[in-house]
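Incident review: delayed structure delivery

Summary: a single-chain prediction request sat in the queue longer than the usual turnaround. Root cause was a stuck worker, restarted by the on-call engineer. No data loss occurred. The affected request and its eventual output are reproduced below so the record is complete for anyone auditing the incident later.

Affected input:
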Amino acid sequence: MVIKAKPVATATSAKRSHLLKVFGKVSGAFRRHLGELSRTRMNATSAERELGKANIDIERVLTENLAATGLPVVGVDAPIPAGAHWLIVPLASQRNALYARDGVCSAVVFVDKDGTCPIGAIFFPLEDMCMIAEATHGVIAEPIGRLRCANRLELNDTLAMLPWKTVDVVEMGLLKMLDGENIHTRKSGNTLSDLFDVACGRADFAIATRVNRLESYMANLVMAESAGFASDLKGKPLGPTSTTLIAANPKLHAKVVKLLA
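Output delivered after worker restart:
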């Protein structure tokens, strides 16, 4: 008789399970505000006030539940703590939430004491979908499954996600530059949503500006685990202080960097 040993939970699998539970609670918090938001949407001031309440409520849910692990929980504008910590964005792209557009999300990354990011998650409350990227375990979104970047090799006829800030698109001359290469463009208003689109093949590459440190960590992790590559606009590695990014499959990435140079 062969006795099968029970699988031993690793630190990363434990964090994965914990993140799924946390975002289940985030979903409830968001839904509580969604009904009120739909009633106040015709009044911009009231709707923005309700979004502010939702952001505070989701931040509270994330902070309380992640702090239960015994680690600090900080936002992207807080000083970088020493040692391992959780980094959160309670509600990204509130403008999308105001008009019930796709792209609204909450995000969490775990930053280890050596500065690496072994696991991160993006939760899309309108779609009730959670994407978790884990080092050496890939990127999995429920209910889609494992994500992989598109394998396009040429810029012609690709789809690019543009920076969310229109003034940056204009100052960089991106529309004229990309149109000259027959590249289609779209703007979701959310860098984290753009990373998801590239990772699952819905977009071929993303260009982002005004990047925060959670987005840098997430870009490195998500692209590495979905057969892609991320850097800043000059092709240099992303770090906590990076403010721009390009995300694509490795061969297409090199061509985007060259185009923007």
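Verification: Confidence is low (pLDDT under 50) at residues 1-11.
Action items: add queue-age alerting; document worker restart procedure.
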